[in-house]
Specification:
Largest sheet: 5 strands, antiparallel
Bound molecules: adenosine-5'-diphosphate
Structural class: alpha+beta
Number of strands: 12
Distance between the termini: 61 Å
Low-confidence stretches: 1-27, 81-90
Number of helices: 12
CATH topology of the largest domain: Heat Shock Protein 90
Strand order of the largest sheet: 2-1-5-4-3
Radius of gyration: 40 Å
Helix content: 40-55%
CATH superfamily of the largest domain: Histidine kinase-like ATPase, C-terminal domain
Number of domains: 4
Shape: elongated
Strand content: 15-25%
Length: 446
Amino acid sequence: MAASDRSGQSTGAALPGLAPAPPPVAPWSDRLRRSAVVLLVAALALVALVVLGGVPFARAIAVFVCIVGAALIPWQLHDAQQSRGEAIGAAPVETPVVRALIEGMPDPAVLLDRAGRVLHFNIAAGQLAPALRRNELAQFALRSPEIITALREAITYAQPRRTSYVDHVPVDRWMELVVKPIAVPTAFGGTDYCMLMTFHDQTPLRRVEEMRADFVANASHELRTPLAALSGFIDTLQGPARDDAKARERFLAIMHTQASRMARLIDDLLSLSRVELSAHVRPDTLVDVVPIIREVIDGLELLAKERQVVIETDLPAGAVTIAGDREELLRVFENLIENALKYGASGGRVMVALTVAPATDGAPEVRVMVRDFGPGIAPEHLPRLTERFYRVDVGDSRAQGGTGLGLSLVKHIIGRHRGRLVIESVLKQGATFTACFPQPKPPESA
Ligand code: ADP
C-alpha cells in the first residue's frame, strides 16, 4: 500500500461528496475573556452614571446583575446542551466500547466518520497501512484507486462496497476490501453514518486457485500425450498397416507402453488425492519398517539387474517400528529406490541404509536413506523436485516411464506421517534422499 503524503494532512479536504466536518467550538478561555470585557465595560458605564448622579446606586446594581446574567447564562446553557449531546451520543462511535470492538477484530479494520476521517483502527490495519492516523483522512494512508473509489461510493450512496486490489509492499498480496456504512443514531433522534472498512488477505486462496488450475492443465496434458499416440496407432492399424503383421506387432507393443503410462498416471493421481484427503489423519498402527524396505528391494531386483546397478543395504537385524501405513510406506521406498535406479544408474550402485538418530528437537527419528552415485541434481532444481509434474529433464523422465508425481506423492505421505524428506545432491556425485519419521515413544512402564 502506498505510504501517505504527510505534508497534506492538516489542509486536506474531505473526500468529494462527503459532509464537511463540524466547525470548531471556541475554547473556554476565549469565551470567558469576551464576557469579562463586556462586564467590565458595563460596570464602568454604571459607575459613571452613579457618580454623575443620573442613576440611583440600587438600580445600578440591579442593572449590572441583569447584564451579568445576560452575558453568562446563554453560553452556560449552550455548554450544558453540548455536554449532554456528547453523553447521549453525538459521536457514539468514539466510545471505548467501539474502539475495543475494532481492536478485537481479527482482520485489519478501520472505522471512519462520514467525512472519511479515521476514528479507530486496529493493529492489523496499522501494519497494512502504517500511515493511518486517527482524526486524519483515510485517503492519505490508503491510496489505491480501488479503495478510494469504494469508499467514496459507500459514503455517497450509503451502500456497502466490495473491491479487490493488489498490495505490492512488502510482498505482492491479493487483498479484498469491504466498506460497510453503519447507521448511527444522533443525539437529536436522527441518523448519521460511519464507515467500517475491513480488509481480507485473499493470497492463500488465490495461490490454491492457481495451483489447482496448473494441476488440471498439467494432468490433462500428461494424459493427452499417450492418448494421442494410442489413437494415432489405432488409425494406422485400421488403415495402412491393416495387413502388415510385423508393423502390427511393433505398434501393439508401443500402444501397450502408452496405455501403461496412462494407467500409472491415473494411479498416481488417485494416490495423491487419497493421501491429500487424509493428510490430517496421522497413521497410528505400529509397523516394522525393515521388512517393508526389504520387500521393495526384492521387487526392484529385476530393474536393478536391467540397469546393471548393485543395491547395497545397511539395515538393522532387529525390528524398527514407526506409526505408519504399510501400503503408503511401500510407495515411498519404491519411489525413492526406483528413482535412484533409473536416474542414478550410471553410478553402478545404490545404497539403502536405516539409522535411528535424534532430530533437531532431540526426539529420536527413523531415517531411511537412499543414495545413488549418478549424475546428481543441480542445486536450482532441488527445492522444486517435490512439486507435482516437476521434472529436471521431461524427456528423460518420460523415457523412464515417469509421471512427475512420484516425489510429490512421497512428500505428502511423509507429511501425513509427520516426518520430513531431505534431498541432498552434488552434481556428478549422485543424490541422497532421506525419509525421516518420528519414532513413537516407548510405552511407559507401570
Ligand atoms: P518421475 O516420475 O519423473 O520420476 P519424480 O517426482 O519421482 O517423477 O521425480 C521428479 C524428477 O526428479 C525426475 O523427473 C528426475 O528429473 C528427478 N530425480 C528424482 N530422483 C532423482 C535421482 N535419484 N537422481 C537424479 N534426478 C532425480
